[in-house]
């Protein structure tokens, strides 16, 4: 009698033949994926009659068997039995777990789709071997009947599971850009995802072997860290390496021209749009809820700036944050004047409660205030702290609490992912003499974050794997990508130093124009950043 196979859930390929690139044959594509490190395969055929389904399953199993990788059949117990597949995956509307177990016996694997804590608990008590938690994000592969969970929703399910003996994968909208974020943010207190289940980003890849290597490398990186420490410890990377990454990424913004949707304050709309253009990204400054929804489907990043508080705009911003999260887009929040008035305190509290941010970036007064460390604002101007350890604690605690990257701008900028804190030391005092320089820093973070999300209408991310291979190796294997995004503020700070040095700059008015020019010049010749950038890690207890 066969025994239940040991399964490695790291990279679970769920098939969808209609997504194959032109000229790719299914079984050859599958074999490349297995060579690239796929550890589990699910044959998912929604429209195939029984006999051709069995034929395909048999051919698929011949290949998976050669790679020692288990084959799971989606929905169809009869097909699984016919080819002696290693297991079956069922959803909430399919045959029940108990019925499947009766048919296929105790030594086969059963996976169950879950979307909330109750479904997870039922599946666990019913004896599921693994849970497919999703959809994490919006996906065009499957019509979703429920709102995507977001990373927070996945984490809530994982946490509620405690130490239950069941494996977990996340599914839905997972691509190479959002995998590090998903893995890092869901690894808490010893519980973590065991892997990811991916359809389109692998099935539509023109370089499936490399794509799978990249995915598997990222997932393993986080799973291994978690196994060692309970919560993954992020390394303090060599700052020289970080600077080289910035230099490499700068031109990709212009190459890709990603859309960066801003809902920002009345004072800085024009400067924020021009800074976006100067870096080679494409600004759109739209506030209507209908626009917000459509744009989320094509957006590279969402920049939200609460400088002009107004109820309609606040509602649009909350909607924009939520819509963009369901599409897996980075959302960057600038809590302008967060603690300046009672109204702003209420509004910023609402944002933090209702939205999931990738990055929160504010001045010292705002960040200290949100972190409960006594920050003050005079109007929207910062009244900060000269004490580096207070600044560092504030960014770190806020980042940990909201599970995102937090940056505090000022003479020195402090950035944290909840563990590490880095100080960026470039910048010029004239920045404080023009309005909206902090908002411009938020825009710069948005442009860099967007440049890694190569969304094209109607195309899946998998088509851009060539570019991804370069980026993934630089950004994903060692670090949480969003952390590096924030270090890109360095680019603006260096632009301010270059602008201030110019002979034609006589004061704030000329400085403002020169700043945009220097940002533009840096975007064309980023090597200048190499000798100019100054950043250092802080060692905190
Ligand atoms: C690993 C994994 N997780 C979830 C699903 C979704 O299954 P289901 O809800 O049954 O939807 P369909 O895949 O049948 O459309 C899955 N297939 N795999
Ligand atoms: C089958 C399934 N179940 C929940 S989301 C999903 C589709 C995931 O596809 P993709 O990886 O292309 O987003």
TrEMBL record:
It catalyses: 2-(2-carboxy-4-methylthiazol-5-yl)ethyl phosphate + 4-amino-2-methyl-5-(diphosphooxymethyl)pyrimidine + 2 H(+) = thiamine phosphate + CO2 + diphosphate; 4-methyl-5-(2-phosphooxyethyl)-thiazole + 4-amino-2-methyl-5-(diphosphooxymethyl)pyrimidine + H(+) = thiamine phosphate + diphosphate; 2-[(2R,5Z)-2-carboxy-4-methylthiazol-5(2H)-ylidene]ethyl phosphate + 4-amino-2-methyl-5-(diphosphooxymethyl)pyrimidine + 2 H(+) = thiamine phosphate + CO2 + diphosphate; 5-(2-hydroxyethyl)-4-methylthiazole + ATP = 4-methyl-5-(2-phosphooxyethyl)-thiazole + ADP + H(+). The keyword Kinase applies. Its cofactor is Mg(2+). One of its GO terms (biological process) is thiamine biosynthetic process. Residues 11-202 form the Thiamine phosphate synthase/TenI domain. One of its GO terms (molecular function) is hydroxyethylthiazole kinase activity. One of its GO terms (cellular component) is cytoplasm. Pathway: Cofactor biosynthesis; thiamine diphosphate biosynthesis; 4-methyl-5-(2-phosphoethyl)-thiazole from 5-(2-hydroxyethyl)-4-methylthiazole: step 1/1; Cofactor biosynthesis; thiamine diphosphate biosynthesis; thiamine phosphate from 4-amino-2-methyl-5-diphosphomethylpyrimidine and 4-methyl-5-(2-phosphoethyl)-thiazole: step 1/1. Keywords: ATP-binding, Kinase, Magnesium, Metal-binding, Nucleotide-binding, Thiamine biosynthesis, Transferase. Signal peptide: none annotated. It comes from the Eukaryota. InterPro entries: Aldolase_TIM, Hyethyz_kinase, Ribokinase-like, ThiamineP_synth_sf, ThiamineP_synth_TenI, TMP_synthase. SUPFAM superfamilies: Ribokinase-like (SSF53613), Thiamin phosphate synthase (SSF51391). In the C-terminal section; belongs to the Thz kinase family. Condenses 4-methyl-5-(beta-hydroxyethyl)thiazole monophosphate (THZ-P) and 2-methyl-4-amino-5-hydroxymethyl pyrimidine pyrophosphate (HMP-PP) to form thiamine monophosphate (TMP). This is Thiamine phosphate synthase/TenI domain-containing protein.
């Amino acid at each position: 009698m066969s025994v239940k196979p040991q399964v490695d859930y790291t990279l679970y390929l769920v098939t969808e033949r209609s997504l194959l690139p032109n000229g790719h044959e299914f079984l050859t594509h599958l074999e490349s994926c297995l060579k690239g490190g796929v550890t589990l395969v699910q044959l998912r055929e929604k429209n195939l009659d029984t006999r051709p389904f069995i034929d395909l399953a048999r051919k698929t199993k011949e290949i998976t068997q050669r790679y020692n990788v288990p084959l799971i059949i989606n929905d169809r117990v009869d097909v699984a039995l016919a080819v002696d597949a290693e297991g079956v995956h069922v959803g909430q509307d399919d045959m029940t777990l108990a019925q499947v177990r009766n048919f296929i016996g105790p030594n086969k694997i059963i996976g169950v789709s879950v979307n909330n804590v109750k479904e997870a608990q039922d599946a666990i008590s019913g004896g599921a071997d693994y849970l497919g938690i999703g959809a994490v994000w919006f996906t065009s592969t499957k019509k979703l009947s429920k709102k995507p969970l977001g990373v927070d929703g996945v984490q809530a399910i994982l946490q509620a599971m405690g130490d239950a003996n069941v494996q977990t994968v996340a599914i839905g909208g997972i691509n190479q850009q959002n995998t590090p974020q998903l893995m890092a943010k869901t690894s808490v207190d010893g519980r973590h995802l065991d892997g990811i289940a991916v359809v389109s980003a692998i099935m539509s890849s023109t370089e499936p072997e490399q794509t799978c290597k990249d995915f598997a490398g990222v997932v393993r990186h986080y799973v291994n860290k978690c196994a060692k420490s309970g919560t993954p410890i992020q390394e303090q990377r060599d700052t020289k390496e970080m600077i080289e990454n910035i230099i490499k990424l700068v031109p990709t913004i212009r190459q890709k021209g990603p859309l960066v949707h801003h809902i920002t304050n009345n004072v800085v709309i024009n400067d924020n749009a021009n800074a976006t253009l100067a870096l080679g990204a494409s600004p759109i400054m739209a506030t209507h809820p209908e626009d917000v929804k459509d744009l989320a489907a094509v957006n590279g990043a969402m920049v939200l700036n609460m400088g002009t508080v107004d109820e309609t705009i606040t509602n649009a911003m909350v909607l924009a944050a939520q819509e963009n999260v369901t599409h897996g887009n980075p959302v960057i929040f600038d809590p302008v004047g967060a603690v300046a008035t009672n109204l702003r305190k209420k509004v910023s509290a609402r944002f933090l409660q209702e939205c999931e941010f990738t990055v929160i970036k504010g001045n010292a007064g705002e960040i200290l205030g949100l972190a409960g460390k006594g920050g003050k604002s005079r109007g929207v101007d910062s009244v900060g702290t000269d004490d580096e350890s207070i600044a560092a604690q504030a960014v770190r605690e806020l980042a940990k609490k909201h599970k995102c990257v937090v940056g505090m701008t000022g003479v020195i900028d402090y950035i944290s992912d909840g563990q590490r804190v880095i100080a960026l030391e470039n910048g010029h005092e004239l920045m404080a003499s023009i309005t909206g320089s902090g908002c411009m820093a938020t825009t710069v973070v948005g442009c860099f974050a967007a440049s890694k999300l190569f969304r094209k209408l109607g195309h899946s991310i998998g088509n851009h794997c060539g570019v991804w291979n370069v980026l993934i190796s630089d950004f994903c294997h060692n670090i949480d990508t969003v952390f590096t995004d924030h270090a890109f503020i360095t680019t603006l700070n260096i632009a301010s130093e270059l602008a201030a040095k110019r002979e034609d700059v006589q004061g704030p008015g000329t400085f403002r124009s020169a700043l945009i020019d220097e940002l533009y010049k840096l975007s064309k010749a980023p090597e200048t950043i190499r000798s100019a950038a100054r950043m250092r890690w802080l060692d905190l207890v």
